[in-house]
Amino acid sequence: MDRYHNYTLDDFLQDDAFIQGVLLSDAEQERQLNQWLQHHPEKRMLVQQARELILRFRFAEEDVPPDFDIRLKQRIDTTIASDGEFTSVRQLQRRPVWIRVAAIAASLIAGTALLWNWLSDTRTIITTPYGETRSVWLPDSTEVILNAHSTLRYNKEWSARHREVWIDGEAFLKVKPVNTSGQGPAGFIVHTNGMEVSVLGTEFNVRSTDNTTVMLQSGKVRVTVPGVHDPFVLQPNDYLHYNKQTKNWTRKQVDPQLHTAWMRHQFIFEHQSLEEVCMYLQNYYGTPFVIRNSNMKKIQISGTIELQEEEDVMSTLSGILSTDVKKENNQIIIQKK
Amino acid sequence: MGSAVSAYHFHEDEQWLRQMKAGDYTAFTALYNKYIKGLTQYGLKFTADQAIVEDCLHDLFVWCWSKRHELEIQRSFKGYLMKSLRTGLLHRIEKEQRRNIRPITTDENYEFRLILSPEAVLMDREQDSILRERVARLLDQLTARQREVIYLRYYEGLPFEEVARNMNLSVKACYKLMGRAIATLRETLPHSSLILLLWLC
């Protein structure tokens, strides 16, 4: 504030911090500025003029069709799916980072037909918006349940022998075992976040964000993690967690309910840090979560959140934490009372 | 001071960029959703041809995904996107014009259309419309570069350094450009401040 002392109108109009404060109508800056003005009343007029001038430039928005963003995103997805993605899969295969999962066993899922999004010429792309999950049946009756904010892609020319899909985000797969006449069971490959999971028929959950996890519900799976020579066998309820950056893996027995709760529109967490919980919710709803008190980030919490309306989530969270949770400027703010 | 919000957004972008580099397509989508509206509006200031703007945005985002491993973002991702869009657009518009033998658009000579929003200024209705007309007239007197600098600084809220980088200027030249624009626009002030004072009394 001290530098404001000698400011002319033009100086105010060119001061980054001043402009930022006016544009964001920042309460803290307003308070500081008012305090400063109490001691420098002669500058009041100047500050007011500068503020007024800056705020005058609200420009008319150009007319854009309401579906412009969505159509453009579909076009981008299609381009990336048809060339970008193939390049990156090839690149990733050259690197020694991959997991192979093979499984024998099965469960059959019957279901009703679903609408497909026929978006590209060569790939079918199905994307779930924030806050919504969706079941998808592949041509071979394999069921894929997509969590919110996730994408499933597969070739329109579906090969019964070489089944493969690409997944970003989280999905639960119930792979249907298929015997092609006399040639043995057909393979099924899931490409996700630089890994390949290849399956012969089983139920498992895949989640790829910073880390990739595989949770096996039924069947038998052999997994190879980069850096570990001997492949090891996953049993039902086994959970494999792999951190791409540190190349660390963890394997443990888990309650499958915890990892499949999202399919029932629930988020169950046990002894997880508030930061992790918020990261999950942010990824689900697309609304940024802000923890105002940094010492709260690491506190461990347990609970169940119904993934319904944002307001319900906020009140549940507020109950668990016994603290204020409110929405401001399209962000969810967690702040100690 | 006043930078808490933008600092947080910067942090959020960093996180998403890291995830995107690790191959997370949802992070790429999140960044798209966050910036597509502003970029579209910015692009349409250079040309009214929506097809051209759409093409350039398409190429820009496909580029970001396919080159994500090489992407080096020095400061803000928003600034990076705006500068890349601007470069691509000016290049494309120039190509388009060569075909039509129209005056050529370059970094020195281009269009930048700005129209004041109807709900721009509050206060007294009648005075307001007079004022709006004056501001609109003054805006027309500015060069495209001056209009762009006003738009980037006062509407998009980019800091000076970003504005300078975006327009291929030194920070000093950018201040000067802005200074000249402000000198022209300030002519509207005495009148309106009077209203403000009366209003405060």
Would you mind describing this structure in some detail?
- The complex is a heterodimer of chains A (337) and B (201).
- With 337 residues, chain A is α+β, with helices and mostly antiparallel strands.
- Chain A folds into 3 domains: 2-121, no CATH class; 128-259, Sandwich (Jelly Rolls); 265-335, Phage tail protein beta-alpha-beta fold (3-Layer(bab) Sandwich).
- Chain A is built from 8 helices and 21 strands.
- Chain A has helices spanning 9-13, 16-23, 27-39, 44-56, 68-94, 256-260, 274-285, 310-321, and strands at residues 100-103, 123-127, 134-137, 143-146, 151-155, 162-174, 179-180, 184-185, 187-192, 195-199, 203-208, 211-218, 221-224, 232-234, 238-243, 249-253, 266-273, 289-291, 300-306, 324-328, 331-335.
- In chain A, strands 2, 3, 4, 5, 6, 9, 10, 11, 12, 15 and 16 form an 11-stranded mixed sheet that branches.
- In chain A, a hairpin with a 7-residue loop joins strand 13 and strand 14.
- By secondary structure, chain B is mainly alpha-helical.
- Helix content of chain B is 70%, strand content 0%.
- Chain B contains 9 helices and no strands.
- Chain B has helices at 4-21, 25-43, 50-66, 77-100, 125-141, 144-155, 160-166, 171-185, 189-200.
- The two termini of chain B are 30 Å apart.
- Mean pLDDT of chain B is 78; it is low at 1-8 and 192-201.
